[in-house]
Design brief:
- The chain has eight helices and no strands.
- The longest helix has 40 residues, at 53-92.
- The protein is globular, with a radius of gyration of 19 Å.
- It is mostly helical.
Protein backbone atom coordinates (compact mmCIF):
# COMPACT_ATOMS: atom_id res chain seq x y z
CA UNK A 1 0.00 0.00 0.00
CA UNK A 2 2.80 2.43 0.86
CA UNK A 3 4.40 1.95 -2.53
CA UNK A 4 1.04 2.21 -4.30
CA UNK A 5 0.23 5.51 -2.58
CA UNK A 6 3.63 6.95 -3.52
CA UNK A 7 3.30 5.81 -7.12
CA UNK A 8 -0.30 7.08 -7.42
CA UNK A 9 0.11 10.49 -5.79
CA UNK A 10 3.61 11.52 -4.70
CA UNK A 11 5.72 10.52 -7.67
CA UNK A 12 3.50 12.06 -10.36
CA UNK A 13 3.41 15.34 -8.40
CA UNK A 14 7.19 15.26 -7.96
CA UNK A 15 7.76 14.48 -11.65
CA UNK A 16 5.60 17.46 -12.63
CA UNK A 17 8.00 19.77 -10.76
CA UNK A 18 11.35 17.98 -10.86
CA UNK A 19 11.97 15.58 -13.71
CA UNK A 20 13.56 12.20 -13.01
CA UNK A 21 13.50 12.53 -9.21
CA UNK A 22 10.95 9.80 -8.62
CA UNK A 23 12.42 7.30 -11.08
CA UNK A 24 14.98 5.87 -8.68
CA UNK A 25 12.29 5.18 -6.08
CA UNK A 26 10.00 3.60 -8.66
CA UNK A 27 12.92 1.41 -9.73
CA UNK A 28 13.35 0.27 -6.13
CA UNK A 29 9.66 -0.59 -5.92
CA UNK A 30 9.19 -2.20 -9.30
CA UNK A 31 12.47 -3.97 -9.91
CA UNK A 32 14.71 -4.68 -6.95
CA UNK A 33 12.10 -5.36 -4.28
CA UNK A 34 10.21 -7.79 -6.52
CA UNK A 35 13.33 -9.95 -6.92
CA UNK A 36 14.14 -9.91 -3.21
CA UNK A 37 10.61 -10.95 -2.25
CA UNK A 38 10.65 -13.68 -4.91
CA UNK A 39 13.85 -15.02 -3.31
CA UNK A 40 12.28 -14.93 0.14
CA UNK A 41 9.20 -16.79 -1.14
CA UNK A 42 11.44 -19.36 -2.84
CA UNK A 43 13.45 -19.87 0.37
CA UNK A 44 10.34 -20.29 2.53
CA UNK A 45 8.84 -22.74 0.05
CA UNK A 46 12.14 -24.62 0.08
CA UNK A 47 12.09 -24.82 3.87
CA UNK A 48 8.49 -26.02 3.95
CA UNK A 49 9.06 -28.68 1.29
CA UNK A 50 12.68 -29.57 2.08
CA UNK A 51 13.80 -33.09 1.33
CA UNK A 52 16.49 -33.62 3.97
CA UNK A 53 18.96 -31.43 5.83
CA UNK A 54 20.90 -30.36 2.72
CA UNK A 55 17.76 -28.81 1.19
CA UNK A 56 16.96 -27.11 4.51
CA UNK A 57 20.47 -25.63 4.80
CA UNK A 58 20.37 -24.39 1.21
CA UNK A 59 16.95 -22.78 1.72
CA UNK A 60 17.95 -21.31 5.10
CA UNK A 61 21.06 -19.74 3.52
CA UNK A 62 18.95 -18.28 0.73
CA UNK A 63 16.45 -16.90 3.24
CA UNK A 64 19.27 -15.34 5.24
CA UNK A 65 20.85 -13.72 2.15
CA UNK A 66 17.52 -12.39 0.89
CA UNK A 67 16.60 -11.07 4.35
CA UNK A 68 19.91 -9.22 4.64
CA UNK A 69 19.45 -7.84 1.12
CA UNK A 70 15.94 -6.65 1.95
CA UNK A 71 17.02 -5.09 5.23
CA UNK A 72 19.90 -3.18 3.64
CA UNK A 73 17.81 -2.14 0.68
CA UNK A 74 14.99 -0.83 2.89
CA UNK A 75 17.45 0.98 5.18
CA UNK A 76 18.94 2.77 2.16
CA UNK A 77 15.56 3.36 0.49
CA UNK A 78 14.02 4.91 3.61
CA UNK A 79 17.13 7.01 4.23
CA UNK A 80 16.95 8.31 0.64
CA UNK A 81 13.30 9.20 1.12
CA UNK A 82 13.93 10.95 4.45
CA UNK A 83 17.14 12.75 3.48
CA UNK A 84 16.59 13.45 -0.23
CA UNK A 85 12.99 13.10 -1.36
CA UNK A 86 11.12 14.69 1.57
CA UNK A 87 13.33 17.81 1.64
CA UNK A 88 12.70 18.24 -2.12
CA UNK A 89 8.97 17.84 -1.52
CA UNK A 90 9.14 20.46 1.23
CA UNK A 91 11.13 22.90 -0.93
CA UNK A 92 9.06 22.51 -4.10
CA UNK A 93 5.53 22.34 -2.68
CA UNK A 94 3.87 24.74 -0.28
CA UNK A 95 2.18 23.35 2.82
CA UNK A 96 -1.35 23.15 1.31
CA UNK A 97 0.06 21.25 -1.69
CA UNK A 98 1.99 18.91 0.63
CA UNK A 99 -1.17 18.35 2.65
CA UNK A 100 -3.14 17.55 -0.51
CA UNK A 101 -0.56 14.97 -1.63
CA UNK A 102 -0.20 13.43 1.82
CA UNK A 103 -3.96 13.36 2.37
CA UNK A 104 -4.43 11.53 -0.93
CA UNK A 105 -1.69 9.07 0.04
CA UNK A 106 -3.15 8.55 3.50
CA UNK A 107 -6.55 7.84 1.95
CA UNK A 108 -5.16 4.59 0.53
CA UNK A 109 -4.74 3.18 4.08
CA UNK A 110 -7.36 2.30 6.64
CA UNK A 111 -6.73 3.82 10.09
CA UNK A 112 -5.31 0.63 11.66
CA UNK A 113 -2.90 0.04 8.78
CA UNK A 114 -1.86 3.70 8.85
CA UNK A 115 -1.12 3.46 12.59
CA UNK A 116 0.95 0.33 12.12
CA UNK A 117 2.84 1.85 9.18
CA UNK A 118 3.73 5.08 10.96
CA UNK A 119 4.60 3.16 14.13
CA UNK A 120 7.12 1.05 12.19
CA UNK A 121 8.74 3.97 10.39
CA UNK A 122 8.66 6.27 13.42
CA UNK A 123 11.41 4.35 15.24
CA UNK A 124 13.99 4.73 12.48
CA UNK A 125 14.63 8.41 11.75
CA UNK A 126 16.32 11.00 13.95
CA UNK A 127 14.36 12.97 16.55
CA UNK A 128 14.21 15.95 14.17
CA UNK A 129 12.78 13.78 11.39
CA UNK A 130 10.27 12.21 13.80
CA UNK A 131 9.14 15.64 14.90
CA UNK A 132 8.80 16.79 11.29
CA UNK A 133 6.80 13.63 10.48
CA UNK A 134 4.43 14.09 13.43
CA UNK A 135 3.90 17.80 12.71
CA UNK A 136 3.26 17.02 9.05
CA UNK A 137 0.78 14.23 9.80
CA UNK A 138 -0.95 16.43 12.35
CA UNK A 139 -1.41 19.10 9.69
CA UNK A 140 -2.96 16.82 7.09
CA UNK A 141 -4.99 14.24 8.99
CA UNK A 142 -8.41 14.80 10.51
CA UNK A 143 -8.18 15.16 14.31
CA UNK A 144 -9.80 11.78 14.97
CA UNK A 145 -7.45 9.97 12.57
CA UNK A 146 -4.40 11.75 14.00
CA UNK A 147 -5.49 10.85 17.53
CA UNK A 148 -5.84 7.18 16.63
CA UNK A 149 -2.51 7.22 14.88
CA UNK A 150 -0.66 8.84 17.78
CA UNK A 151 -2.19 6.41 20.26
CA UNK A 152 -0.83 3.52 18.21
CA UNK A 153 2.62 5.13 17.73
CA UNK A 154 2.87 6.04 21.42
CA UNK A 155 2.03 2.50 22.55
CA UNK A 156 4.84 1.08 20.41
CA UNK A 157 7.46 3.82 20.96
CA UNK A 158 6.98 5.00 24.56
CA UNK A 159 10.51 6.31 25.20
CA UNK A 160 10.85 8.36 22.03
CA UNK A 161 7.23 9.53 22.34
CA UNK A 162 8.06 11.26 25.65
CA UNK A 163 10.70 13.26 23.76
CA UNK A 164 8.09 14.12 21.12
CA UNK A 165 5.71 15.39 23.81
CA UNK A 166 8.55 17.56 25.12
CA UNK A 167 9.16 18.97 21.64
CA UNK A 168 5.46 19.40 20.81
CA UNK A 169 3.84 20.23 24.18
CA UNK A 170 0.25 20.33 22.91
CA UNK A 171 0.32 16.74 21.62
Amino acid sequence: LHEDSEEQFLFPAMNDRIRFVAETYEFDHDDFEVHVFEGIDQAITGLVHANGNLDRRKSAKLLFRQSVALHEHMRLHISKENELLIPKLESEFDVPEQAEIAGAMAGVFDQQVMGETVSCTYGGPTEDNRERMIRFLRGILPEEAFGGLTTHVKSNNADSWREMERRIPDL
